[in-house]
Protein backbone atom coordinates (compact mmCIF):
# COMPACT_ATOMS: atom_id res chain seq x y z
CA UNK A 1 0.00 0.00 0.00
CA UNK A 2 1.10 3.57 -0.61
CA UNK A 3 0.86 6.77 1.46
CA UNK A 4 -2.90 7.36 1.28
CA UNK A 5 -3.84 3.83 2.29
CA UNK A 6 -1.33 3.70 5.14
CA UNK A 7 -2.60 7.04 6.41
CA UNK A 8 -6.24 5.96 6.11
CA UNK A 9 -5.63 2.65 7.87
CA UNK A 10 -4.29 4.57 10.87
CA UNK A 11 -7.88 5.56 11.71
CA UNK A 12 -7.10 9.15 12.73
CA UNK A 13 -4.84 8.15 15.63
CA UNK A 14 -1.89 10.60 15.36
CA UNK A 15 0.88 8.38 16.76
CA UNK A 16 -0.32 5.33 14.78
CA UNK A 17 -0.39 7.54 11.69
CA UNK A 18 3.17 8.72 12.31
CA UNK A 19 4.49 5.19 12.75
CA UNK A 20 2.55 3.91 9.76
CA UNK A 21 3.95 6.67 7.54
CA UNK A 22 7.60 6.50 8.66
CA UNK A 23 8.00 2.71 8.72
CA UNK A 24 9.98 2.53 5.47
CA UNK A 25 12.41 5.09 6.91
CA UNK A 26 13.05 3.13 10.12
CA UNK A 27 15.32 0.10 9.92
CA UNK A 28 15.79 -2.73 12.42
CA UNK A 29 16.06 -1.83 16.08
CA UNK A 30 15.68 1.88 15.33
CA UNK A 31 11.93 1.38 15.76
CA UNK A 32 12.50 1.10 19.51
CA UNK A 33 13.78 4.69 19.59
CA UNK A 34 10.19 5.89 19.23
CA UNK A 35 7.29 6.11 21.72
CA UNK A 36 5.29 2.89 22.07
CA UNK A 37 2.30 4.15 20.09
CA UNK A 38 4.53 5.05 17.14
CA UNK A 39 6.13 1.61 17.39
CA UNK A 40 2.64 0.11 17.03
CA UNK A 41 2.15 2.21 13.89
CA UNK A 42 5.44 0.95 12.47
CA UNK A 43 4.41 -2.64 13.12
CA UNK A 44 0.98 -1.98 11.63
CA UNK A 45 2.59 -0.70 8.43
CA UNK A 46 4.64 -3.87 8.13
CA UNK A 47 1.62 -6.07 8.84
CA UNK A 48 -0.32 -4.22 6.13
CA UNK A 49 2.51 -4.70 3.64
CA UNK A 50 2.78 -8.42 4.38
CA UNK A 51 -0.99 -8.88 4.13
CA UNK A 52 -1.14 -6.89 0.89
CA UNK A 53 1.67 -8.80 -0.81
CA UNK A 54 0.14 -12.18 0.05
CA UNK A 55 -3.45 -11.33 -0.88
CA UNK A 56 -4.74 -13.21 -3.96
CA UNK A 57 -6.25 -10.10 -5.54
CA UNK A 58 -2.97 -8.21 -5.18
CA UNK A 59 -1.20 -11.10 -6.85
CA UNK A 60 -3.70 -10.84 -9.68
CA UNK A 61 -3.26 -7.07 -9.90
CA UNK A 62 0.50 -7.48 -10.22
CA UNK A 63 0.09 -9.56 -13.37
CA UNK A 64 -1.19 -6.51 -15.25
CA UNK A 65 2.07 -4.61 -14.65
CA UNK A 66 4.54 -7.48 -14.88
CA UNK A 67 4.98 -7.32 -18.69
CA UNK A 68 6.49 -3.83 -18.29
CA UNK A 69 8.18 -3.86 -14.88
CA UNK A 70 8.51 -7.47 -13.72
CA UNK A 71 9.41 -7.72 -10.05
CA UNK A 72 8.61 -4.03 -9.49
CA UNK A 73 4.92 -4.62 -10.24
CA UNK A 74 3.95 -4.51 -6.55
CA UNK A 75 5.09 -0.91 -6.19
CA UNK A 76 2.83 0.16 -9.05
CA UNK A 77 -0.10 -1.81 -7.63
CA UNK A 78 0.38 0.11 -4.37
CA UNK A 79 -0.03 3.41 -6.24
CA UNK A 80 -3.03 2.08 -8.17
CA UNK A 81 -4.69 1.06 -4.91
CA UNK A 82 -4.26 4.60 -3.56
CA UNK A 83 -5.99 5.93 -6.67
CA UNK A 84 -8.99 3.67 -6.19
CA UNK A 85 -9.12 4.42 -2.46
CA UNK A 86 -9.17 8.16 -3.20
CA UNK A 87 -12.16 7.58 -5.49
CA UNK A 88 -13.93 5.09 -3.21
CA UNK A 89 -17.25 6.61 -2.15
CA UNK A 90 -17.58 4.01 0.64
CA UNK A 91 -14.47 5.43 2.32
CA UNK A 92 -14.57 9.10 1.24
CA UNK A 93 -18.14 10.18 0.63
CA UNK A 94 -17.12 13.13 -1.54
CA UNK A 95 -14.23 15.29 -2.68
CA UNK A 96 -14.50 17.49 0.40
CA UNK A 97 -14.06 14.56 2.79
CA UNK A 98 -10.91 13.42 0.96
CA UNK A 99 -9.47 16.94 1.15
CA UNK A 100 -10.35 17.17 4.85
CA UNK A 101 -8.63 13.85 5.50
CA UNK A 102 -5.52 14.94 3.59
CA UNK A 103 -5.34 18.22 5.51
CA UNK A 104 -5.75 16.53 8.91
CA UNK A 105 -3.04 14.03 7.98
CA UNK A 106 -0.55 16.79 7.13
CA UNK A 107 -1.39 18.63 10.36
CA UNK A 108 -0.84 15.49 12.47
CA UNK A 109 2.45 14.66 10.79
CA UNK A 110 3.77 18.20 11.06
CA UNK A 111 2.84 18.21 14.75
CA UNK A 112 5.04 15.17 15.36
CA UNK A 113 7.79 16.17 12.90
CA UNK A 114 10.39 16.96 15.61
CA UNK A 115 10.63 13.26 16.54
CA UNK A 116 10.26 11.75 13.06
CA UNK A 117 13.14 10.64 10.77
CA UNK A 118 14.82 13.51 8.95
CA UNK A 119 14.42 11.84 5.56
CA UNK A 120 10.67 11.55 6.05
CA UNK A 121 10.34 15.08 7.40
CA UNK A 122 12.18 16.32 4.30
CA UNK A 123 9.34 14.86 2.19
CA UNK A 124 6.56 16.55 4.12
CA UNK A 125 6.72 20.00 2.47
CA UNK A 126 6.46 18.49 -1.00
CA UNK A 127 3.75 16.05 0.11
CA UNK A 128 1.70 18.94 1.45
CA UNK A 129 2.49 21.50 -1.26
CA UNK A 130 1.55 19.11 -4.05
CA UNK A 131 -1.20 17.52 -1.93
CA UNK A 132 -0.21 13.95 -2.75
CA UNK A 133 -2.98 12.36 -0.72
CA UNK A 134 -5.72 14.33 -2.45
CA UNK A 135 -4.24 14.15 -5.95
CA UNK A 136 -4.08 10.35 -6.11
CA UNK A 137 -7.66 10.54 -7.42
CA UNK A 138 -6.53 12.21 -10.66
CA UNK A 139 -4.84 10.55 -13.62
CA UNK A 140 -2.03 13.11 -13.72
CA UNK A 141 -1.42 12.48 -10.02
CA UNK A 142 -1.07 8.76 -10.68
CA UNK A 143 1.15 9.37 -13.68
CA UNK A 144 3.42 11.53 -11.53
CA UNK A 145 3.47 8.85 -8.81
CA UNK A 146 4.39 6.18 -11.36
CA UNK A 147 7.24 8.40 -12.53
CA UNK A 148 8.49 8.74 -8.94
CA UNK A 149 8.39 4.95 -8.43
CA UNK A 150 10.35 4.40 -11.63
CA UNK A 151 12.91 7.04 -10.65
CA UNK A 152 13.62 5.31 -7.34
CA UNK A 153 13.97 1.86 -8.91
CA UNK A 154 17.22 0.53 -10.34
CA UNK A 155 17.30 0.18 -14.14
CA UNK A 156 13.66 1.12 -14.53
CA UNK A 157 12.70 3.99 -16.81
CA UNK A 158 9.63 2.76 -18.66
CA UNK A 159 6.97 4.25 -16.40
CA UNK A 160 5.12 5.33 -19.58
CA UNK A 161 4.48 1.69 -20.46
CA UNK A 162 3.34 1.04 -16.89
CA UNK A 163 0.93 3.96 -16.96
CA UNK A 164 -0.48 2.70 -20.26
CA UNK A 165 -1.04 -0.72 -18.66
CA UNK A 166 -2.78 0.99 -15.74
CA UNK A 167 -5.15 2.67 -18.17
CA UNK A 168 -5.67 -0.47 -20.24
CA UNK A 169 -6.51 -2.63 -17.22
CA UNK A 170 -8.26 0.07 -15.19
CA UNK A 171 -11.52 -1.81 -14.63
CA UNK A 172 -9.77 -5.06 -13.68
CA UNK A 173 -7.44 -3.24 -11.28
CA UNK A 174 -10.40 -1.47 -9.68
CA UNK A 175 -12.08 -4.85 -9.20
CA UNK A 176 -8.92 -6.22 -7.54
CA UNK A 177 -8.84 -3.19 -5.24
CA UNK A 178 -12.51 -3.57 -4.27
CA UNK A 179 -12.04 -7.21 -3.33
CA UNK A 180 -8.80 -6.56 -1.50
CA UNK A 181 -9.43 -3.37 0.46
CA UNK A 182 -12.31 -4.60 2.58
CA UNK A 183 -10.02 -7.40 3.79
CA UNK A 184 -7.02 -5.23 4.62
CA UNK A 185 -9.26 -2.78 6.47
CA UNK A 186 -10.60 -5.59 8.65
CA UNK A 187 -7.06 -6.82 9.26
CA UNK A 188 -5.85 -3.36 10.33
CA UNK A 189 -8.79 -2.94 12.73
CA UNK A 190 -8.12 -6.37 14.23
CA UNK A 191 -4.42 -5.55 14.63
CA UNK A 192 -5.17 -2.31 16.47
CA UNK A 193 -7.88 -3.96 18.59
CA UNK A 194 -5.29 -6.44 19.87
CA UNK A 195 -3.04 -3.46 20.68
CA UNK A 196 -5.87 -1.86 22.68
CA UNK A 197 -6.95 0.89 20.26
CA UNK A 198 -10.52 -0.27 19.55
Fold and architecture overview:
This protein is an all-alpha fold. It has helices at 3-8, 14-22, 36-54, 56-69, 73-86, 95-112, 118-129, 132-135, 139-152, 159-168, 170-194. It has one domain (3-194). It has 11 helices and no strands. It is globular, with a radius of gyration of 16 Å. The mean pLDDT is 94.
Topology:
Elements: H1 3-8, H2 14-22, H3 36-54, H4 56-69, H5 73-86, H6 95-112, H7 118-129, H8 132-135, H9 139-152, H10 159-168, H11 170-194
Helix pairs in contact: 2-3, 2-6, 3-11, 4-5, 4-10, 4-11, 5-9, 5-11, 6-7, 9-10
Keywords: Hydrolase, Lipid biosynthesis, Lipid metabolism
Organism: Parasediminibacterium paludis
Pfam families: ACP_PD
Weakly predicted, low-confidence segments:
none
Query: What is the 3D form?
Result: globular
Q: How would you state the average pLDDT, rounded? A: 94
Report the strand count. Answer: 0
In DSSP terms (H or I, runs of 4 or more residues), the helix count works out at 11
How many domains make up the 3D coordinates?
1
N-to-C SSE string, H for helix and E for strand: HHHHHHHHHHH
What characterizes the major β-sheet? none
Strand % is: under 5%
Distance between the termini: 22 Å
Integer-rounded radius of gyration: 16 Å
Helix content percent band:
over 70%
Structural class: mainly alpha
InterPro entries: ACP_PD (IPR007431)
Organism: Parasediminibacterium paludis
Protein name: ACP phosphodiesterase
Keywords: Hydrolase, Lipid biosynthesis, Lipid metabolism
